[in-house]
Amino acid sequence: MSTKSGLSIGALGSATDTKAETIRFYEKIGILPAPARTAGNYRTYGDEHVRRLSFVRRARALGFPLETVRALLALADQPDRLCGEVDDLVLGQLQEVEQKIADLQRLRGELDRLAHQCRGGRRMAECRIIEALSPDIAP
Q1: Angle of helix 20-28 relative to helix 47-61, nearest 10 degrees?
Q2: Which of 42, 53, 87, 114 has the most crowded CB, counting CB atoms within 10 A?
Q3: Which residues pair with 44 in a beta bridge?
Q4: What does 116-130 look like in DSSP terms, one character per residue?
Q5: Nearest to residue 76, comparing CAs of 63, 93, 58, 92?
Q6: What is the pLDDT of residues 31-71, one digit of tens each?
Q7: For residues 44 and 36, is the Cβ–Cβ distance under 8 A?
Q8: Which residues contact 59 (CB under 8 A, 6 or more apart)?
Q9: Rounded to whole angstroms, how far apart are CA atoms 122 and 66?
Q10: CB within 8 Å of 100: residues ≥ 6 apart
């Protein structure tokens, strides 16, 4: 993506679909480098900010936590390095996603089972769903 240098925070946000508050947060935690400042002390961003923020947004959309995004950025900043560590980070994230899918499938099965226990024709005191959700408390 080619842009001109000197983007305002709003223009950077528009170019990357990122809120200004998020941009400032990424600067504060060091994910995004501090921008140059104008004479009036306004932030001014360049092409590198657009590329880096787009990278961060894509990595976050894939579910990578911020610390992993930080590690990916550090590795990306070393172009002559082998990419085995990146492979390991991606495989770790894939395992996390597969675990979440398995958890969601179990959750779906449980909700499906609950939904078929009661079809609304009973009084609330006899509702099998409410009964299934209520904890068993021993006297």
Answers
A1: 100
A2: 53
A3: 36
A4: TT--S-S-GGG-HHH
A5: 58
A6: 999 999 989 999 999 999 999 999 999 999 999 999 999 99
A7: yes
A8: 68, 69, 72
A9: 48
A10: none
Task: Tokens for 71, please give them.
Answer: 């590690």
C-alpha span between 74 and 79 (Å, rounded):
10
Q: If residue 36 lies in a helix (H) or strand (E), which one and from where to where?
A: strand 36-37
Q: Which candidate, 35, 3, 34, places its Cα nearest to that of 16?
A: 3
Q: Is residue 5's pLDDT more than 70?
A: no
Measuring CA to CA, which residue among 58, 89, 84 is closest to residue 72?
89
pLDDT at 119 over 50: yes
Q: Which amino acid, one-letter code, is at 71?
A: A
Read off the pTM: 0.77
Q: What is the pLDDT of residue 1?
A: 45
